[in-house]
Every structure is written in C-alpha cells, then in structure tokens.
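Field log, afternoon session.

UNIT: design team B
ACTIVITY: writing a sequence onto a fixed backbone
BACKBONE:
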C-alpha cells in the first residue's frame, strides 16, 4: 500500500485510496515513519537500493506472539497475577472484562544467542548494524541489560547503534537508498514486520526474501515469506490457469540448505550444488524470468523451467566436480534445445479455468495435471 501511494485493493478488484489503523502502540511508528519518508523522497529504485537484513530474537519461543497459551480474553474486571514457582509475585496487571491479555517471556539463553548472532552477522557483512530497542519501553530496557554488556565484553560496542524503532526506520531507509546495507537486530514481533516491510519496499514483494534460522542446539531452518499473497494467487490460478507465485525465495533457501549441509557434513557435492543454485537464481533475476501478473507472461511453472535450465547449466559448466558435469550437461543441453516446446506445453491451457478438485484441499492428480503440464520437461528430468 505504501508503494502504491496509499492505495489498496477494494472488493471490486480495483485500487483505491485507503485509510489504515495500526493497533500497535509499540511498532506503529515504523509504518508512520515509512509513509512520511516516502512522501518526502519518492520510491526506491530496486536496481540501486541496498537491503535491510534482520537478526531476530526467535529461539525457544522468545517473545512469542499470536495464539499461544498465555493469551486470554479476560472474563471480568480484576487483577492478572504472574506467580513464580517459589511463590514470589513477578507481575500484576489491572484488567477489565473483555481485555485481550497476553504475556511474553524471553529466557536468558536465547537473548545471549541472539546478540552473538548479531555480532557474527555484523562481522561477516561489515555494514551498519542497529539494535531496534527503545530504552523507555520496559521490555526493551530489560533486554538492554543483557545486550550492552555482551557487546562491551566482545569489544564491538562501536559496531552497533541502539535506536528506537522510529529512528531506526528513518536511518535504515536513508542507508539503503544510498545502495548500502543495514542489519536490523530486533525482537520477534518486529522481525516479522520488517521481513515483510523492507523486501516489499525494496523489490515489490517479500517472496524473494530468505530466512535462515540457526538453531541453538545445531541445525538450521531455511524458509521464505509471502504467505499472505497466496489466496489471491490461487484465485487467479483457478480462474485463468496463471500462477504468479514467485519461488525465488524458495530457490535461495534450497541453495543455502545445500551449503549448510556442505559445511556441517563436509559434503563437497552439496557445496557445488548450492553455489550453482546461487548462479541460477542470479540468472533468473538478470534475465527477468520471475513470475509476472498476467496471462501470457512468465508464471510459476515457466519460472521453474528456467530455474532448472540455469541450475543445470551452472552445474554443467563448473570445474569442481566431474561427475556432476557428466550428470547435468545432457540435461542442460536438452532443456535448452526444447525451450520453445516446453514453454508452449506449460502455457497450453493458460487463460482458461483450472480444475484443482478443490480449494483448501485439492485433488492430487488434478493439481499435478495443472502444475506439471509439460511432458517434454518431465521426460528430460527423468520423471516419465
């Protein structure tokens, strides 16, 4: 909506001026500041803008939000009490009937891990790094009791700024407009907000966003965003057989998971595969093969074909693993030679309704027929 100059989609399918209410006294200023900034400066140029990365406080359900066991609708006026195991009273809160009351707790170990991740990321990137914390907010003040001593002990206090969310928003926007990068070190709720806000402002979508979650006891999670746009995409697929869902973030997650496997298991093949994924995703961006909005343009299926083509080409032309070259060179050649045939088959039913056999629960065979319509592509990939 910010990118569109304050317009949102109405029930008639057209964009119109929109009023917003942001019911969040802690973090509404990030949106207010974003609106004011872009009114002053105009939109970003995606070709030159930098990016805001995020290190979020997530481990062990830190600052968990949403529907969870400590959210209650208060039945009558009174006092909510949190009592520790030893009987001490840690918190009391006066409430009235109908209040939605929620507690959020953060343990010491996740906080320490979060700060160490921020230190590691800043060292790796060497760019501006900001803890988005407001010392006048009680929760943030408690976090700062851990953050500042850890930064001081690591002798990196000068590498980080500590700013309120509003001030951090303004500085981050100014930084990425110059083509530089910034690292936002935030709590979990703000992490969720920013990993939608900044990719959308930078690129127009959060589908190209990659999230890497390093687990405290080893292992990692690799994921992408943009779930909120899925219903509109499925609607269009069923009406026009055109799927505009962008899988670039998923491709990036695949590449990072392969490189993670290579690092943790000393698997050289996985490293080569992961680096080739990076080349393929770069080719998709450079050659503008991401899905677009209208029938007849690149959609999710043809974008996947190009990913397979560029990935196999990257594997066929690397010089680190001869067995991978032997495996993928014929596939790369066949995919390139049959490009027009594959694209024709992928688009053969575009513009007509697609029968998935359901919406929330689709029929597997019908959905596969819609999503994998190119027999030529399936044969080259060895699936027929």
């Amino acid at each position: 909506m910010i990118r569109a100059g304050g317009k949102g989609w109405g029930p008639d399918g057209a964009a119109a001026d929109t009023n917003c209410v942001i019911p969040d006294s802690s973090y509404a200023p990030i949106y207010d500041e974003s609106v004011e900034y872009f009114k002053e400066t105009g939109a970003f140029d995606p070709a030159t803008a930098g990016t805001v990365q995020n290190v979020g406080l997530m481990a062990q359900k830190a600052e968990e939000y949403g529907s969870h066991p400590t959210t209650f609708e208060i039945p009558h006026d009174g006092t909510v009490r949190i009592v520790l195991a030893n009987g001490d009273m840690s918190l009391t809160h006066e409430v009235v009937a109908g209040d939605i009351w929620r507690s959020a707790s953060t343990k010491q170990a996740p906080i320490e891990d979060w700060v160490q991740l921020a230190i590691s990321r800043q060292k790796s990137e060497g760019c501006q790094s900001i803890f988005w914390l407001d010392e006048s907010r009680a929760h943030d003040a408690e976090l700062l009791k851990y953050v500042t001593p850890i930064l001081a002990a690591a002798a990196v206090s000068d590498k980080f700024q500590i700013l309120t969310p509003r001030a951090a928003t303004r500085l981050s926007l100014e930084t990425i407009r110059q083509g530089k990068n910034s690292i936002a070190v935030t709590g979990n709720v703000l992490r969720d907000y920013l990993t939608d806000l900044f990719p959308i402002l930078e690129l127009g979508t959060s589908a190209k966003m990659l999230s890497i979650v390093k687990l405290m006891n080893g292992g990692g999670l690799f994921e992408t965003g943009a779930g909120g746009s899925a219903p509109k995409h499925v609607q269009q697929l069923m009406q026009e057989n055109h799927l505009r869902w962008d899988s670039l973030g998923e491709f990036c997650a695949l590449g990072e998971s392969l490189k993670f496997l290579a690092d943790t298991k000393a698997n050289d093949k996985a490293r080569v595969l992961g680096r080739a994924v990076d080349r393929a995703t770069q080719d998709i961006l450079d050659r503008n093969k991401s899905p677009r909005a209208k029938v007849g343009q690149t959609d999710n299926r043809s974008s996947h074909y190009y990913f397979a083509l560029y990935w196999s080409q990257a594997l066929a032309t690397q010089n680190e693993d001869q067995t991978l070259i032997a495996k993928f060179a014929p596939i790369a050649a066949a995919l390139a030679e049959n490009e027009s045939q594959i694209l024709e088959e992928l688009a053969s039913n575009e513009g007509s309704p697609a029968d998935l056999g359901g919406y929330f629960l689709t029929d597997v065979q019908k959905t596969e027929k819609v999503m994998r319509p190119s027999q030529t592509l399936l044969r080259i990939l060895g699936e027929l």
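LOG NOTE: Residues 7-63+106-204 form one domain.
NEXT ACTIVITY: expression trials, pending approval
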